[in-house]
């Protein structure tokens, strides 16, 4: 299947995600992500794609990047990622794929998914309503990965890890410092964090569903304090960046993020030292 995004074409095997790839090919999927990649990835830069799925953004960014490290622990997604890289010989040498789950610490974790692996819901942030949880893996801190691969340059990091960002970001400082604070684009999954906290404190799947439905209808948050405590920690090493933007290019102050902890419920963020003329 041929995919053309902003006049850049590559081949993919859609696997079990044919409908999703057809949607992507219409060029109205995550337009903001392509805007962000186009602006912040420098020519001949190095990109770290944490949560690469089947490779759409990893493949796309080879139009400018000289090297892309594509990471995804989902076994189905990773096979599709490898196939899609192999289908594009001119890009093959630019992309290094790794079946790795980045986390805040090295530990044994369960990779779970709502229904099955291969979609976009796989996460090490376990939730009561997940029905696929057969894979156990060892997570890797970002600094460990960088040192193991002897990476000396990264210009841009995309992080889309279905809730694991709340584990990674509080401990990311030493890794960012080692690679000179590249632009960091984070997709936040507030809902995953909320469900993960339910998983920790509510043993009944039925009650979890009931409470989540009440939250959705009323706007209440039964674990508000615990959620806010988790969110506060993510900024420990990120406020060293000069600029913070929403995906629409709106500059966000650090005070806003401190005062409105639920800001990330509706907004993904770019942390960068480069002014964005969006």
Description:
This protein is an alpha/beta fold and 278 residues long. The chain has one domain (2-272): Rossmann fold, CATH 3.40.50.150. The chain is built from twelve helices and 13 strands. The protein has helices at residues 18-25, 31-40, 56-61, 75-86, 89-92, 142-148, 165-168, 173-178, 190-201, 205-218, 224-234, 254-259; strands spanning 2-5, 8-11, 46-50, 67-71, 95-98, 102-103, 108-113, 132-138, 140-141, 156-159, 183-186, 243-246, 269-272. Strands 5-4-3-10-11-13-12 form a seven-stranded mixed sheet. Strands 1-2 form a two-stranded antiparallel sheet. Strands 6-9 form a two-stranded parallel sheet. Strand 3 (46-50), helix 3 and strand 4 form a beta-alpha-beta unit. The mean pLDDT is 94.
List descriptors:
single chain, 278 residues, alpha/beta, Rossmann fold, seven-stranded mixed beta sheet, two-stranded antiparallel ribbon
The residue-averaged pLDDT reads: 94
Rg from Cα: 18 Å
Report the β-strand fraction as a percent range: 15-25%
CATH topology: Rossmann fold
Give the class from helix and strand content and strand pairing.
Answer: alpha/beta
Under CATH, the homologous superfamily reads Vaccinia Virus protein VP39
For the sheet with most strands, the description reads:
7 strands, mixed
What is the terminal-to-terminal distance? 32 Å
- The CATH architecture classification is 3-Layer(aba) Sandwich
């Amino acid at each position: 299947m041929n995919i053309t995004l902003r006049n850049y074409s590559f081949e993919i095997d859609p696997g079990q995600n044919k409908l999703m790839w057809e949607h992507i090919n219409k060029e109205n999927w995550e337009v903001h992500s392509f805007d962000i990649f186009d602006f912040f990835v420098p020519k001949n830069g190095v990109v770290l794609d944490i949560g690469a799925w089947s490779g759409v953004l990893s493949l796309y960014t080879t139009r400018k990047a000289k090297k892309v490290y594509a990471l995804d622990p989902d076994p189905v997604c990773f096979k599709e990622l490898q196939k899609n890289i192999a289908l594009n010989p001119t890009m093959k040498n630019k992309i290094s794929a790794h079946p790795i789950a980045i986390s805040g610490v090295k530990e044994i974790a369960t990779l779970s998914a709502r229904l099955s692996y291969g979609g976009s819901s796989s996460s090490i942030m376990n939730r009561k309503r997940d029905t696929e949880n057969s894979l156990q893996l060892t997570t890797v801190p970002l600094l460990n990965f960088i040192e193991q691969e002897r990476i000396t340059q990264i210009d841009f990091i995309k992080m889309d890890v279905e809730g694991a960002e709340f584990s990674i970001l509080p401990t990311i400082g030493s890794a960012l410092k080692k690679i000179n604070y590249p632009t960091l684009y984070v997709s936040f999954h507030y809902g995953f964090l909320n469900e993960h906290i339910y998983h920790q404190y509510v043993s009944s799947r039925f009650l979890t569903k009931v409470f989540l439905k009440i939250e959705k209808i009323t706007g209440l948050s039964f674990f508000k304090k615990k959620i806010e405590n988790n969110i506060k920690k993510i900024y420990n090493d990120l406020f060293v960046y000069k600029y913070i933007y929403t995906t629409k290019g709106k500059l966000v102050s650090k005070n806003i993020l401190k005062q409105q902890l639920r800001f990330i419920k509706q907004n993904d963020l770019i942390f960068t030292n480069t002014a964005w003329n969006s």
